[in-house]
Design brief:
By secondary structure, the protein is mostly beta strands. It is built from 2 helices and 25 strands. Strand 19 and strand 20 form a beta hairpin. The longest helix is centred in the C-terminal third of the chain and has 12 residues. Bound molecules: manganese (II) ion.
């Protein structure tokens, strides 16, 4: 246990591989904080008018969690999935030992698009296993009674929040929940004290644990809290993420999460050799090549908070 913290994770702008002219805001991994629970990656793309064409690329050792805010995303993968994703729905792709997928906006021209994409690192028991894809169109919601103002509401996207469980498959004790706080409302988010948590402000204004947040900032809260107070003057859309602190040190490179340098090299070689490990995404004639490896051995990232 590390105790309560209030550390702002400023997002940095990153060009998304294989998509010219498309930048994303990335809050995780942070240089001092590789994971929050098992969450190991947090991107927001948008809001923007864009023609998204993320061509087939591989993943290992993680789950991708796609949560659109505006617009629709077409997902295709090497398991044969081909489906459109809308606001209020969750795409959850479990890479296991290997999968590949593509993500496109719908139509030929630029369209309004805004989405959160997270990765969740898989524990030893699941990271060598079979790949899978799930789309959830009916996620459970709950009301958070306000201390003043109108009640807030939450959608449990992944794991468990306030005693309500998402039907999505998870492999570690975890929470991912969207929280809507009306204007002039103050609420308390109930939290398990032995988990760590963070809150991302997606839209509006919010003071979280007495700390004012700017849009796209993520406030890391540490652990040892049984609740976090959230207050908004004009209304807020927030995303709560957290879980049991992830015990293993992980090596992340490109689209891969592993434990050692050699595992990453093996996955990269398999993708470059078009190995059956990653299958094929139907309907594409281009794929994203792996970038060159750095000239040093990849090392696990450690915490320094
Ligand atoms: Mn991907």
């Amino acid at each position: 246990m590390i105790g309560p913290r209030r550390i702002v994770l400023e997002p940095r702008e990153v060009p998304l591989g294989g998509v010219r002219g498309m930048n994303v805001l990335r809050a995780l991994p942070h240089r001092n904080l590789p994971t929050i629970g098992a969450w190991c990656f947090l991107d927001r793309f948008g809001p923007a008018d864009t023609r998204m064409r993320v061509e087939p690329h591989p993943h290992i050792g993680l789950q991708t969690v796609t949560w659109p805010l505006v617009g629709e995303i077409r997902h295709r993968d090497s398991l044969g999935s081909d489906t459109d994703l809308r606001r209020g729905q969750l795409n959850l792709m479990t890479a296991g030992n290997g999968i590949s997928h593509s993500e496109y906006s719908i139509g030929d021209g630029p369209v309004p698009l805004d989405a959160l994409q997270f990765w969740v690192v898989l524990p030893e028991s699941a990271r060598h296993g079979a790949a899978g894809f799930e789309q959830h169109t009916a996620l459970p919601g709950l009301t958070l009674p306000s201390e003043h103002g109108a009640d807030a509401s939450a959608t449990v996207v992944l794991g468990e929040f306030a005693g309500v469980r998402s039907p999505a498959s998870v492999h570690t004790p975890i929470v991912g929940a969207e929280i809507v706080v009306p204007a002039g409302t103050r609420v308390r988010l109930p939290l398990p004290a032995d988990w760590e948590h963070a809150v991302l402000l997606v839209e509006g204004d919010a003071v979280v644990a007495e700390h004012p947040l700017a849009v796209n900032e993520t406030l890391y809260l540490g652990d040892s809290r049984v609740e976090a107070e959230v207050e908004s003057a004009t209304g807020a859309l927030l995303f709560l993420l957290g879980g049991e602190p992830f015990a293993d040190e992980i090596v992340m490179w490109w689209n891969f999460a592993g434990r050692t340098h050699d595992e990453i090299v093996e996955a990269r070689d398999a993708w470059e050799a078009a190995s059956p490990r990653f299958g094929e995404v139907a309907g594409h004639d281009v794929r994203i090549p792996a970038p060159p490896l750095p000239p040093v051995r990849l090392m696990p990232r450690s915490r320094s908070l």
